Amino acid sequence: MSEVAPYSEAITETSKAVGKSIDLVRDFGQPVAEAYGLVIGDRIEARRERNLDAMTRRTRAILRERALLEAAPVAEAIAIPLLKAAEGEPRSEMLEWWATLLANAMDPARQNEVRKEFIAVVRDFHPTDAIVLKKMADLYRLDFAPAAALRDANISETSVSVSLRNLYMKGCADENNANYRITPFGIELVRACSS
Prior knowledge:
With 195 residues, the chain is mostly helical. The protein contains 10 helices and 2 strands; from the N terminus they run αααααααααββα. It has helices at 8-28, 30-35, 41-65, 76-87, 92-106, 116-123, 127-138, 146-149, 157-169, 184-192; strands at residues 173-176, 179-182.
């Protein structure tokens, strides 16, 4: 199995680009940097590196679990925005989605499931959105009744309502008389982000 090493250059380039933006403001003047709170830039960069490291380790674990002997090359149009989005995501629930999405993009048997537009949608997800969408996929062809479906998930009904609205706006769910149903786009997104 080839490692994620080919993508380390993309990770490095993404970090450099973000770092250059911070450096530009810093170089403009210390008072401006302090006014915008960019003094903590080093901590932000370190956090991004930790996020990418956690995602990379999880991606490797997924590929090992599949006993994948040879990883497929990932198109830059997928790899770069995926890595850039994942570096800013500290929440473990969402890092799991990013790691699985990357693993699927590297798996020759599944790489066609990963679409560039999925990255933009997942980037805007809250972990509750991911939980609700996954549950909707499990209940495919049924109208989604939030209270019953998520009783065990310990998520408030209002939080589920906000997630359903976001999923609707992202094209992952349809609404009909306050009933929601997962769309084909939502089904494919869940498939691309599932092991």
